[in-house]
Design a protein that fits this description.
This protein has 278 residues and is mainly beta. The chain is built from one helix and 13 strands; from the N terminus they run βββββαββββββββ. It has a domain at 25-204. The chain has one helix at 85-96, and strands spanning 13-14, 21-22, 36-46, 56-64, 79-84, 110-113, 124-125, 133-137, 160-173, 178-190, 193-202, 250-252, 259-261. Strands 3, 4, 5, 6, 7, 8, 9, 10 and 11 form a nine-stranded antiparallel sheet that branches. Strands 1-2 form a two-stranded antiparallel ribbon. A two-stranded antiparallel sheet has the order 12-13.
Length: 278
């Protein structure tokens, strides 16, 4: 999935009457550099299909500022987009073989403007309303290609119709945490399947059970979740940390094998999800 990376740089302004520096104003934003690890909690589901049994997903977010008449970013007006890998992978596979939904008004992502360009006193940014992500993806026919070359096989992808709706989103934005947590509600309809989830998403996505992360492990342990790979501290077998804030409680999700916030998504979840004060 292609992602636009928007970067904003700020300079610290010197205080006029005292030594030291003041924090620059933080604007609402999300990170487009890498996916977020989204953790789902099913709240409603019916019909047959994969859409009602999702443990979570890799979620792509991006922030956008319109240009002022002078051609500079308008930092007081911020919009955001979100795309799930569940939908994005289907769109990408179809596009690879020249198949796409070209209907007017259809897009593989949701998009909407934040209520304010700056977070509230609690460090929360809220999109007013996001458009739906809607795709009617035509079928991709299977093609075995050259019988002697399995690499050129084209797997079949049946035609499918999907609608995703993202509501009640909140993004945690402070000087120390620039949009690294997102919560909200996610509804999906795919053909005869429909489901709704509460979710919480964490940036950056970090793998915690992948063979490439710990190549020296015994084979039996390669796909076992390892909470140690979610730590900000260097792992003894990799020599690197996860890149996740040490202020966030995180665990390795046993199915997705990615680091997720140690919380149950839903209306009773405290947000942002932070380690208990010592």
């Amino acid at each position: 999935m292609n992602r636009t990376v928007a970067a904003l740089s700020f300079a610290l302004a010197p205080l006029a009457l005292a030594a030291g520096c003041s924090q620059p104003t933080v604007t609402c934003t999300v990170s487009a550099a890498m996916p977020y690890s989204g953790k789902y909690q099913l709240t409603a589901g019916e019909g047959s299909g994969d859409c009602a049994s999702l443990p979570g997903d890799a979620l792509g977010f991006a922030a956008y500022n319109p240009a002022t008449p002078e051609g500079k970013p308008d930092l007081n007006t911020v919009s955001m987009a979100v795309r799930s890998t569940f939908l994005g992978s289907l769109v990408a596979h179809a596009a690879e073989y020249g198949v796409a939904d070209t209907a007017d008004g259809h897009a593989p992502h949701a998009f909407g403007q934040f209520e304010s360009g700056v977070p509230d006193a609690d460090g929360r940014c809220r999109p007013a309303e996001l458009s739906q992500a809607v795709q009617d993806i035509p079928a991709v026919a299977a093609d075995p290609g050259d019988p002697d070359d399995p690499e050129d096989d084209i797997p079949e992808q049946p035609a499918t119709s999907l609608t995703e709706t993202w509501t009640n989103l909140e993004v945690y934005v402070t000087a120390a945490s620039l949009g690294t947590q997102v919560r909200g509600h996610y509804a999906i309809t795919q053909d005869t399947c429909s489901a709704e989830y509460d979710f919480v998403a964490l940036f950056p996505q970090a793998y915690c059970g992948d063979e490439d992360m710990v190549p020296d492990r015994d084979d039996d342990d390669i796909n076992s979740p390892d909470d140690g790979l979610c730590s900000a501290e260097p792992h003894p077998l990799t020599g690197i940390g996860s890149g996740i804030s040490p202020d966030f409680p995180v665990v390795c999700h046993p199915q997705m094998l990615v680091c997720v916030l140690d919380a149950v998504p839903g209306p009773d979840m405290t947000f942002p999800v932070l380690n208990a004060a010592e």
